[in-house]
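Reply to dn_fold:

You asked what the input looked like. This is it:
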Amino acid sequence: MSLLRNTRTRTALIVGCATLALASCAGKEDKPRLAYEERPVELLYATGADRLDRGLWNQAVQYFGEVERQHPYSEWSRRAILMTAYAHYQGNDYAEAIGDADRFISLYPGNPAAAYAHYLKAICYFEQIVDVGRDQAATGQALANLTEIVQRYPRTEYAADARLKIDMVNDQLAGKEMTIGRWYLRQGDTLAAIGRFKTVIDRYQTTSHTPEALYRLVEAYLTLGLAEEAKRNGAVLGYNYPGDVWYRDAYKLLTDRGLRPAVEPSQSKKPSLVSRLPFVKDKEATIRPPAADVAPVEAPAEAAPPPALETPSAEAPAAVQEAKPEQRRGLLSRIPGLGGGK
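and this is what came back:
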């Protein structure tokens, strides 16, 4: 009887494990593979391109995979790697797309199309950026890869798109610093908050968060009783953003403490030196893979980057500074007392 019970127990365990295995397989997405059938490389590639145009990403991946499998040493195989990466990207399979791009870069580092592999890899990281309340690991990777494109291929259409996205990424990183800094302020940890706001001024001063960061520094220094530091940051805010709502708030805050700034808030509706860039992830705007191994398209000359913060000159009277804004030239901001000299 004991032997019979043990046999039944083993049988039940085997049946249970088999059931679990089948259930786990059923839960996975079924991606049928093409049956191997030797076909002309041109036909395989053209079919993959057709599936790509029709938005059938998985089928496109399979046909381009067959190009590599059946004709591994042809130029079509080299192109198929990039097309596979693009199909994975369009299907939001970013890990696979990045792997394909890295494979192309490793196999063909000197090929003109390697520029596109670097570009697509950066876009994959860019599209994985999440809101500022969550981990920003992908944001840092996106910034590093976008910067590499600008440095490696500065006059290409890829670099032009990368520069625009770098501005968005920097705005995102500055927003993360501001979120943490505001939280520290609410918790009463003023020194920690000041560190975060100074990071925005030092690293991301051309982003849309700079006026608020300067205002928060005014607010924080007043809380600590450091009136001169508060006045200095208020002066920088007023000199660079006289019409911004954050300067109007800072002006009122300083005036209420008997520290009225020399420059009054402007009532003009002129746009600020920086404006908030809409953070968009638009696959339609992503550049498609090159049709052949050709050099990247050269982009037109770009406008000059936005100016850095300026510190008001101590020699010129405030009234003259306000009356002649066109003379605002000179010191790049390493705001005195905030971690750097002039």
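The two ends are 92 Å apart (CA to CA).
Hope that clears it up.
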